[in-house]
Amino acid sequence: MGVPIGDLLPRTKIELEQIDSVAIDAFNAIYQFLSIIRQRDGTPLMDDAGRITSHLSGLFYRTAHIIEAGVRPVYVFDGEPPELKKDTVIKRKVTRERATQEWLQARAEGRVDAFKYAQASARLDEQVLESSKALLRYLGIPVVNASSEGEAQAAYMTSKGDVSFTASQDADALLFGTPRLVRNLTITGRRKLPGKNVYVHISPELFELDDILASLEINREQLIEVSILVGTDYNKGVKGIGPKKALRMVKSFGIQRVLDNLGESLDYERIKQFFLDPDVNHEYDLKWAPVKEEELISFLCDEHDFSRERVENTLQRITGVQHEADQRSLAQWL
Amino acid sequence: MFKADILGETLKDGIEALTIIVDEARVHLGKDGVYARNADPSYVAMVQFELSAKAFENYETDEEVVTLDLKKMQDILELANRTDVIQMAIDDNRMALSFGDLKYTIALLSPYSIKKEPKVPKVESAAHVVITGKEFRWAVKAAGKVSDNIALGCANTDFFMEALGDADTMRLELSKDQLVDVSRTDGKSDEVRSLFSLEFLIEMSKAVGKASEVSLDIGKNIPLKVGFDFADGNGSVSYLLAPRIEQE
Q: Cβ contacts (< 8 Å) between A328 and chain B: which residues?
């Protein structure tokens, strides 16, 4: 998922406390929760009725963690996938179905690689999306429905100044023009490396578009061209070209000449235009409301069998922070 | 160069008004008097301070901007009587403070040690209310008995201060004839109110309480402006305090 140019991009560390407001790519975050939060054999968390709750656990506890640090999150959900993404969507579906079969077989055979296949089988269906939105509503967190790509919407909201940061694991938001992208926001902490008995500490990383362009000595259009050569969600990359080579070639010759020389035909202008001017929703309301405690407890504990004690303890911590956050700053009237 | 003589009472009151918001302040020593604008680190509250040269017994300056350790000055001035004349002199990054037989020399702070002067927020209030300083201090103190917050508002030209605790409440209502002055600057008559943390207001009310009159500019969920004069009208203090969001 996303454009594989991460290795090219300079980044700095950022503390959660430095982030005041952030538009989170909801599909990206929920997908991470669905693939990470599983039992050893790859079975996701489920309630007594057999409904998957891995995403609710991730959304609730991880969002609580960032709220505690003073962050005001907004979750941005994808709208209709663009026509350009049709092939990728079909390919992902096939991969997911194959992974589901592999996982079921591996689990039945008690194999250790079951978890790996289970992760690849994670899918965002209607139940997952609707229950995620319901949870966010109870938490008082704004939900924005994008017209098309969530990352494009989050990038638009960040560049407009409605939020300070975009959060996603993918670099695409930078191509969509976000000035500040945070990675690892919702998966910060101690994490087990897949397939190994090794733990690493993951902390948030900040990518600033201006710094990236200055350091690579290119403009945003060139960064998009580099990504198109490597491969994006909207096109297959050119065989044999990795991020470093693509950067060198775009800087020296420009994408058109590179494609001509390689005898490749690609409607790159259409993809470039999509990154530069994506379809976004201009009508959204960013209003952070108090947590609806009773409804939230009933939703998580009565409907989805979460531990009441753990939920109540977490709620106590975030409602305390929300109370402090009620204080506004004079900066809002400048 | 700066040389001035000032009554202990004026200097003590002026420094108290500033230290409610900041411990250290950037202060302009201008030809016509002293001016300062500083905000607390969280930018929730701001003070604008003016003291005319007329408030001083003597006042000479080359016009400069200095950064003062107000807490240290306040601590030292505890030893001075309100009727003492304090001699002040600034030269070579040091300030001399003399009263009675005591002479202190304290270092000025680096101008880089505090933030730049804050911008002044643009706030359009809905009502302008004038009450006595004593009444304001009393109402703020009363609110502190039941809550951490206080709402200030106006319904038509009736002014109210209201505190809602978990179980207890406090409300003070003053109609037009009970107020020194009141006017609706928005030309409307509906109720407007904003909620404020008592943490700052209790401190502000200590300085405000000494003033005969205090003006309050209020509106709907906007910063509160609290203004009062001191030093026989030769000094003025204006606080801006950001509101809290009222829970729906």
A: 44, 242-245
**What does each C-alpha distance from A36 to A31, A44, A116, A118, A134 come to in angstroms?**
9, 9, 10, 9, 21
Predicted confidence band of residue A6 (pLDDT cuts 50, 70, 90): confident
Mean pLDDT of chain A: 87
Which residues contact residue B109 at a Cβ distance below 8 angstroms, ignoring those fewer than 6 apart?
Answer: B24, B67, B68, B69
CA geometry: angle B193, B46, A164, nearest 5 deg: 80
Tell how strand B158-164 and strand B169-174 pair up: antiparallel
User: Of B42, B123, B248, which has the smallest distance from its Cβ to A329's Cβ?
Assistant: B42
Chain B residue numbers touching A289 (CB-CB < 8 A)? 248
In this predicted model, what pLDDT tens digit does every residue of A148-203 receive, in sequence order? 999 999 999 999 888 889 999 889 999 999 999 999 998 777 666 666 677 778 88
Domains of chain A and any CATH numbers: 6-217 (3.40.50.1010)
Average the pLDDT over A210-216 and give the result: 93
B24 has pLDDT over 60: yes
Task: Return the ∠ at Cα B248 (arms to B176 and A327), rounded to 5°.
Answer: 80
Q: How far apart are CA B196 and CA A232, in angstroms?
A: 50
CB atoms within 10 A of CB B244: 22
Tell me if chain A has a CB within 8 Å of the CB of B240: yes
pTM metric for this prediction? 0.60
ipTM for the assembly: 0.93
Interface of A with B in 20-39 (CB under 8 A): none
Chain A touched by B139 (CB under 8 Å): no
Residues facing A327 on adjacent strands:
B244
Contact A326 B119 (CB under 8 A): no
B224 touches chain A (CB under 8 A): no
pLDDT at A325 over 70: no
Region A90-118: mean pLDDT is 77
Shortest CA gap B120–chain A (Å): 7
Q: Is some CB atom of chain A closer than 8 A to the CB atom of B219?
A: no
